[in-house]
Design goal:
Shape: globular
CATH class: Mainly Alpha
Distance between the termini: 47 Å
Largest sheet: 3 strands, mixed
Number of strands: 3
Number of helices: 6
CATH topology: Four Helix Bundle (Hemerythrin (Met), subunit A)
CATH architecture: Up-down Bundle
Length: about 160
């Protein structure tokens, strides 16, 4: 089956609004609760998802522009003070939506040949634009699941 980005683009267009609508149901006093010392808070999940969008845009651009570029892995746990990246979740969602619009415009400008370009990546056996687009969807929904778990899980670890 030939790769068709149409479905992914439609999904990618809607995810920021889906996550923001979901998070808007959560009382703000719950945004900074942790399950344990290493776990992220709801705020940190939102800030992380918003903050990686520029990097993902850059990766798509790089793969389009260069033959077999090398992608440097990103380790969010090495990112300093993730909870301080934005002044508020509203600011994070505003940047997330703006970056997603830029990404969609870039994706819509891609040619079939761009989707066939391969890159090397320190963490993955294969890496290309279709993999990035799928990863974006999976990654963002994974963080949404973690947000839901923090909000709704009934256990003694949520503090």
């Amino acid at each position: 089956m030939k790769f068709d980005p149409t479905l992914l683009v439609s999904t990618l267009e809607s995810i920021p609004d889906i996550i923001e609508a979901y998070v808007s149901n959560i009382p703000k006093e719950r945004f900074d609760e942790k399950r344990n010392a290493e776990a992220w808070t709801i705020r940190e999940h939102v800030y992380h998802v918003a903050s990686v969008q520029k990097m993902l845009y850059g990766r798509i651009e790089l793969i389009r522009a260069e033959k077999n570029p090398a992608i440097v892995p990103f380790f969010p746990e090495k990112q300093a003070a993730i909870g301080d990246l934005y002044e508020s979740t509203e600011a994070a969602f505003a940047e997330y939506r703006a970056e997603r619009k830029r990404q969609i415009a870039l994706i819509e400008s891609l040619r079939d040949a761009d989707y066939r370009n391969e890159a090397t990546h320190g963490e993955y056996a294969r890496y290309n634009i279709p993999i990035i687009l799928n990863h974006m969807v999976f990654h963002e929904y994974w963080h949404m699941y973690r947000i839901e778990e923090l909000w709704l899980a009934k256990d003694e670890y949520v503090k």
